[in-house]
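// run 5 | inverse folding | seed 20
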């Protein structure tokens, strides 16, 4: 299983001039190696592009992506990462989406395909990041 961050999917859908080719190639290559998944946090992040959940679900199916529920262990770990973030001077008032995504990858013991490595590397050092 490989968990995907929203930025990789949006790079492809938006045909981002800088990241489209890298993200497309990673998605293709990783799909040959393992099953690709997102969680409800990523689902929410990418849903803004769609009028209906049916349209989004069809697009995810076209990409061969599945949506996994976030286990309670991962939600707990996300909360602990948020506490650490606040102790280090973080100013956000709520648990950040990246914490749920990183914690989910950590609990699954799976790699995370992303372009944004800073928070994941800092708060979930055991997660293998597939990144540029």
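// decoded
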């Amino acid at each position: 299983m490989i968990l995907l961050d929203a930025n990789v999917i949006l790079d492809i859908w938006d045909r981002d001039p800088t990241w489209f080719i890298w993200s497309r190639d990673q998605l293709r290559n990783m799909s040959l190696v393992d099953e690709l998944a997102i969680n409800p946090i990523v689902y929410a992040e990418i849903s803004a592009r769609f009028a209906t959940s049916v349209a989004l679900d069809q697009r995810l199916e076209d990409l061969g992506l599945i949506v996994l529920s976030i286990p309670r262990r991962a939600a707990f770990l996300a909360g602990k990462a948020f506490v650490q973030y606040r102790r280090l001077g973080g100013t956000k008032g709520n648990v950040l989406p990246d914490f749920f995504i990183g914690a989910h990858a950590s609990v699954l013991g799976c790699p995370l395909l992303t372009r944004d490595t800073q928070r994941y590397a800092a708060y979930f050092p055991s997660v293998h990041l597939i990144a540029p």
